[in-house]
Design a protein that fits this description.
The protein is of the alpha+beta class and 470 residues long. It has nine helices and twelve strands. It has three domains: 153 residues, Beta-Lactamase; 88 residues, Helix Hairpins (Orthogonal Bundle), CATH 1.10.287; 147 residues, Histidine kinase-like ATPase, C-terminal domain (Heat Shock Protein 90, 2-Layer Sandwich). It has a five-stranded antiparallel beta sheet, sandwiched between helices. Strands 7-9-10-12-11 form a five-stranded mixed beta sheet, with helices on one face. A two-stranded antiparallel ribbon has the order 6-8.
Length: 470
């Protein structure tokens, strides 16, 4: 049953993370233990070699002082003190003939060959590890020069070192097995801990998919990255919810702005069908229908243009544009409308020209929208001033009026689509003018700021960057 559950979870990320963690831990541990084992084996071998070389030096000293008799006595003493099965000594001549040896009852089959003697003639001593016939251990063999005419063979048993390394290998294997179990358990715990936050986010996403849009992922007591992911996920959900609410509001406003002209068109057409009318009356109905259609088309065109600007799908054709010329053209165009309301419209500028890099048609549309708003919300006998200030790195375009102004609570929302401060909508318009103006300015790398005091007037400041290449 357990194996079946384990196989069912083999594709889970937590299961694979646990396996990866345990695998990497085991590979690292095995490499460490192998290196440790090899190091200890080498260390023990070096200790034996060092001891054998010391023995060879002592025998050379004895030979110089006491000759072969001293060598024979020392062989017997060393063999008895260390043990016959642990060490063996043999003295041979240049032809490999044995002259002296200690008790060799445990060392049958260990001989001195010409290869060892030839190596010793070159390097003064020669080491070799050999298997001992009829024994379950190896021996370390040293053949060294003794005086000018003899060669001494010292054979040291590696039985104790082999048993130690064997016991060490067994201990290390048990140690590795225990650490492997700990590694698997730790990997499972860590991966489960790491995945708990992701599982919480997944559950939250499933609830949102089911329609519980207020659900949020918990971001408490999680790992740093998971906590950041949960926070980002919640921020994204808040943003989406805000956008959805905004879309609903936009939809409501669109429905309102489209419904009114369509209703007027239908009413006029219905009235024209009842009873006989004079040609002038039919002409008026047709003209009214055309005006309403133009208004609808302008609304749809503005919405499409604004969507393209905000989504970045519209490619702005940048060129050198004289902003001063565009301002004067727009003011000349709106001058008759301002005169009808007895509004004083003036232009002020610090330079004759102000060259920026932009698209003439869209910049002209932005200026027209801001001028239209200023005239629309400025009462009769009012004043509107358009100031153009040209600096080295930027151009400032300031629209100042002494109109009805904007209440403080409405200022944060004035750039929203279809938002109108006058809820009664007694002023004509679609509520897209400021949204469109800001989109155009930001598309040109600039910014728009609005300051206003209710009942005293409004100041709209447009900042556009100037290219150094101009």
């Amino acid at each position: 049953m357990f194996l079946k559950k384990l196989l069912n979870r083999r594709h889970d990320l937590s299961f694979r993370l646990a396996l990866w963690y345990a695998g990497i831990l085991m590979a690292t541990l095995l490499c460490t233990l192998v290196i440790l084992y090899a190091y200890l084996g080498t260390y023990l071998r070096n200790q034996v070699d060092s001891a054998l070389l010391n023995e060879l030096r002592e025998f050379n000293t004895l030979y110089r002082e006491g000759g072969l008799d001293a060598i024979e006595r020392e062989m017997e003493l060393e063999s008895e003190s260390e043990g016959i099965g642990r060490v063996f000594f043999r003295l041979v001549d240049k032809d490999g003939q044995t002259l002296l040896h200690s008790d060799m009852s445990a060392w049958h089959g260990v001989a001195v060959d010409q290869i060892q003697i030839s190596h010793t003639r070159i390097d003064n001593h020669y080491f070799e590890t050999k298997e001992v016939p009829d024994q379950d251990f190896e021996a370390r063999v040293l053949v060294g020069r003794l005086g000018a005419d003899y060669f001494l063979q010292i054979v040291h048993s590696l039985r104790e070192d082999g048993l130690f390394l064997s016991d060490l290998a067994t201990l290390l294997m048990w140690f590795a097995a225990a650490l492997a179990m700990i590694g698997v358990a730790s990997g499972w715990y860590i991966s489960g801990r790491a995945m708990s936050g992701i599982n919480a986010i997944t559950q939250a996403a499933e609830k949102i998919t089911a329609g519980q849009f207020d659900t949020r992922a918990k971001a408490e007591n999680q790992l740093g990255e998971i906590d950041k992911l949960a926070t980002t996920f919640n921020t994204m959900l808040d943003r989406i919810q805000t956008l959805v609410a905004g879309m609903r509001e936009v939809t409501d406003n669109i429905a309102h702005d489209l419904k009114s002209p369509i209703a007027r068109i239908r009413t006029a057409a219905e009235l024209a069908l009842h009873g006989e009318k004079k040609p002038a009356e039919y002409t008026a109905v047709i003209a009214n229908t055309i005006n309403e259609c133009d208004r609808l088309l302008a609304l749809v065109d503005t919405m499409l243009f604004l969507s393209e600007m905000e989504s970045g799908t519209r490619k702005t054709q940048l060129e050198k544009v004289d902003l001063a010329h565009l301002v004067h053209e727009a003011c000349d165009l709106f001058q008759p409308l301002a005169e009808d309301k007895r509004i004083a419209l003036a232009v002020q500028q610090n330079n004759a020209t102000c060259i920026v890099k932009g698209e003439s048609a869209t910049l002209q549309r932005m200026i027209a929208n801001l001028l239209d708003n200023a005239i629309k919300y400025t009462p009769e006998d009012g004043r509107i001033t358009v100031q153009l200030k040209s600096f080295r790195k930027e151009a400032l375009l300031v629209f100042e009026d002494n109109g009805i102004g904007i209440a403080r609570e409405n200022l944060p929302r004035i750039f929203e689509r279809f938002y109108r401060c006058d809820k009664s909508r007694h002023h004509s318009g679609s509520g897209l003018g400021l949204s469109l103006a800001r989109a155009i300015v930001e598309d040109h790398g600039g910014s728009v700021q609005v300051s206003s005091r209710y009942g005293q007037g409004t100041v709209v400041t447009v900042s556009l960057p100037r290219s150094n290449s101009l």
